[in-house]
Amino acid sequence: MSNTVLITGAGSGFGALTARALARAGHTVYAAxxxxxxxxxxxxxxxxxxxxxxxxxxxxxxLDVLSQESADAAVDAVLAEAGRLDVLVHNAGxxxxxxxxxxxxxxxxxxxxxxxxxxxxxxxxxxxxxRAQQKGLVVWVGSTSTRGGTPPYLAPYFAAKAAMDALAVxxxxxxxxxxxxxxxxxxxxxxxxxxxxxxxxxxxxxxVIGDYEARYAGLMDQVARRLADLAPAGADVxxxxxxxxxxxxxxxxxRPFRVHVDPANDGSEEVSVVADRIRSDFLTRIGxxxxxxxxxxxxxx
Length: 301
Hints:
Strand content: 5-15%
Shape: globular
Structural class: alpha/beta
Strand order of the largest sheet: 3-2-1-4-5-6-7
Helix content: 40-55%
């Protein structure tokens, strides 16, 4: 069945790959990105050219996750053009690297704003429509850092991804009675094929950075190299896009709650299996087992 899909942060990396993969699978896909008439105009043209070349329904829409007005306008545009919205993919994110102490509170807040509050803005725009139709799917693109190996110098990003994961878990139960399904796709450390590291931010406190560099010289480069060494041959970022396509194409009501795509196997999946089992057991113990799967209920029931 063809779905209308809105995916945030789809100008490059996981987002662009996923938008194209979903379109190839037969879905109507809105690749959301900001500055579609400015900095990202070339990416809009690339998406249009890809759609023409491959005969797929890949479109673009302006969406800045830092703005509620932009999120509202994007969802309205999708509904006006396509007539419906079936799947929302939370992919937009921003990475920063550096000694944690060197980041100002404002810089940490900015990372949280994009990676966590951005999902809330888009949810507030899209969920009323999914709830009204009593069916839908929300896919959250997380990170194995939430529960797996956590190398240093990535703390603001890791903290934001953990917060987003917590939101996703709570939302899953709160949306189940509206017939809305949740899947959390958890990529591991892909050190090539995305712009995560290349476009990542850095802390402002240069003096603090110097103090850490004296003790941890070249640490970030060492981490990147060692993560790359852990990845087996053939590990490609397209695996994440393929996993999301599989989730979307799985029949409603039987999609996996969490899917790991982690060639390096940093331990996140092992921990998540236990955590998700405890969640399931606890909801069952308190008489809320029906929140573990989507099922539309009559209003007031």
